[in-house]
């Protein structure tokens, strides 16, 4: 028999309550939980004073993505290593079908990118960059391959943007299959117009990126999406919600009976548009925060925190889409519209949410585990294998020390990006140990296993009954 490991005397965090006790793991799974006495020959890890949390599930990354004439700084190797150090044991990345190709081809490429390189378990969403009847016919076989969530973009005119007729047909097909579609909600036509106008006026510094995408641009797209959903009543979700305006659209749609599932990101909870400087300034540092949607204001942050705590928002992904400041963000030094969009964040998701959510009293530790793991596991068809500490589930466990205090600095992180948007953030609490299917991967905050034995996860259909 394989030797077991006992995570002894921690606070076991469940969705509705916290238990004092221990967890025994063996052969990749949790085999016992509660008041346990060490067995002879068992490895015992003292967890006193620490939380035992279900391994984090990251719902939104772009690893090894070709975009705007370059490729993201992180591939599956560096990106998942960084995730692991931050307590994330499963990532769902956006496999992308590029224009003119089949989803099968896009998927094949993503399997090649990830195969043998991932430090954590992984699955894919399937991003469609256009809509046609061939794609419609292909959706069933994508779902058969364990990819039960698709993505469409209402932004990026001429590159990826789809409109309501396309959305209607895609949602109709996804509904028939029991799958879901995540939507990037921004009005692509207006962004395109405003970008041309603003550039035409000679405004080219990074400050102006946000001016092409005011908050109404997100809210209006959500209203339009929800109109289509109202006609079909199908499963769908909204990726990276960034505004109070958008959240109020969602609440209104729910009142009319639409079931809307929502993701937000740490950057929209914690960073604001002051990072873009001033119209007069030409500090290129602002390029570090060029992402879409852009950073908003403090009022939006508070609305999103409240949504997260109260069940208005269901989970947190990072939209980790990293480009180095030197050499990549610099491609847009003389034109904000040429700055690759995106920022890193995969490693800090759990730590930031704990320090600014739980420690600040915005949510309790149970809600924290739900929005960083359980809800994503349910919605993305991984539950109860992932997302919960219970007998029979995968032993994906984070030992989190709430007493630790530290300050974020780019050189402490494991990603392959030359900056972090959270540089200098003072954090309370830290991921101490991480287990992936019972294997001890992080100890005392250090990665102790370089194995890239993360497995591809075929996912079941979404369970949208989450709060
Ligand atoms: Zn994204």
The amount of beta strand, in percent, is 15-25%
Largest sheet: 9 strands, mixed
By CATH's scheme, which homologous superfamily of the domain at 55-375 applies?
Metal-dependent hydrolases
Low-confidence stretches: none
Q: Shape, please?
A: globular
Cα(first) to Cα(last) distance is: 40 Å
Helical segment tally? 11
Average pLDDT, all residues: 97
List the secondary-structure elements in sequence, H or E.
Answer: EEEEEEEEHEHEHEHEHHEHEHHEHHEEEE
What Rg is obtained from the alpha carbons, in whole angstroms?
Answer: 21 Å
Given helix and strand content, the structural type is alpha/beta
Percent of residues in helices comes to 25-40%
CATH fold category name of the domain at 55-375 = TIM Barrel
Please explain how this structure is put together:
By secondary structure, the chain is α/β, with parallel strands linked by helices. It has a domain of 321 residues: TIM Barrel, CATH 3.20.20.140. It has 11 helices and 19 strands. Strands 1, 2, 3, 4, 5, 16, 17, 18 and 19 form a 9-stranded mixed β-sheet that branches. An 8-stranded parallel β-sheet has the order 6-9-10-11-12-13-14-15. α7 links the parallel β13 and β14. α6 packs parallel to α7. The longest helix is centred in the middle third of the chain and has 18 residues. 54% of the residues are buried. The mean pLDDT is 97. Zinc ion (ZN) binds next to loops.
């Amino acid at each position: 028999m394989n030797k077991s490991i006992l995570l002894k005397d921690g606070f076991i965090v469940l969705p509705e309550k916290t238990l004092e006790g221990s967890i025994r793991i063996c052969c990749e799974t949790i085999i016992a939980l509660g008041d346990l006495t060490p067995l002879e020959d068992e490895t015992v890890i003292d967890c006193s004073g620490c939380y035992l949390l279900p391994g984090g599930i990251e719902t939104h990354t772009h690893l090894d993505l070709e975009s705007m004439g370059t490729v993201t700084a992180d591939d599956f190797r560096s990106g998942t290593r960084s995730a692991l150090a931050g307590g994330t044991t499963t990532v769902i990345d956006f496999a992308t079908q590029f224009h003119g190709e089949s989803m099968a081809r896009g998927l094949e490429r993503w399997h090649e990118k990830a195969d043998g390189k991932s430090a954590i378990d992984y699955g894919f969403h399937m991003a469609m960059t256009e809509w046609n009847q061939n794609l419609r016919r292909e959706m069933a076989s994508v779902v058969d391959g364990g990819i039960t969530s698709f993505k469409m973009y209402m932004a990026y005119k001429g590159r990826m943007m789809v409109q309501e007729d396309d959305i209607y047909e895609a949602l109709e097909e996804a509904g028939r299959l029991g799958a879901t579609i995540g939507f990037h909600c921004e009005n692509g036509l207006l962004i395109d117009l405003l970008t041309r106008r603003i550039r035409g006026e000679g405004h080219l510094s990074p400050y102006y990126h946000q001016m092409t995408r005011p908050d109404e641009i997100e809210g209006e797209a959500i209203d339009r999406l929800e109109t289509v959903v109202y006609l079909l009543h199908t499963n769908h979700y909204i990726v990276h919600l960034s505004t109070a305006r958008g959240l109020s659209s969602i609440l209104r749609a729910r009142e009319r009976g639409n079931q809307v599932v929502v993701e937000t990101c740490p950057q929209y909870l914690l960073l604001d548009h002051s990072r873009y400087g001033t119209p007069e300034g030409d500090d290129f540092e602002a390029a570090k925060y060029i992402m879409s949607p852009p950073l908003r204001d403090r009022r939006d942050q508070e609305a999103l925190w409240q949504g997260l705590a109260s069940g208005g928002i269901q989970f947190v992904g990072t939209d980790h889409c990293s480009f180095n400041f030197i050499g990549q963000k610099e491609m847009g030094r003389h034109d904000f519209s040429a700055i690759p969009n995106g920022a890193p964040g995969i490693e800090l998701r759990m730590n930031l949410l704990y320090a600014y959510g739980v420690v600040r009293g915005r949510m309790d530790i149970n809600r924290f585990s739900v929005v960083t793991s359980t809800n994503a596991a349910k919605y993305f068809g991984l539950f109860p294998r992932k997302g919960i500490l219970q007998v029979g589930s995968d032993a994906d466990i984070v030992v989190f020390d709430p007493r630790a205090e530290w300050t974020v600095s780019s050189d402490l992180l494991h990603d392959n990006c030359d900056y972090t948007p959270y540089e200098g953030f003072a954090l309370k609490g830290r991921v101490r140990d991480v287990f992936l299917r019972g294997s001890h991967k992080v100890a005392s905050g250090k990665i102790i296993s370089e194995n890239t034995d993360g497995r591809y996860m075929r996912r079941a259909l979404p369970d949208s009954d989450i709060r």
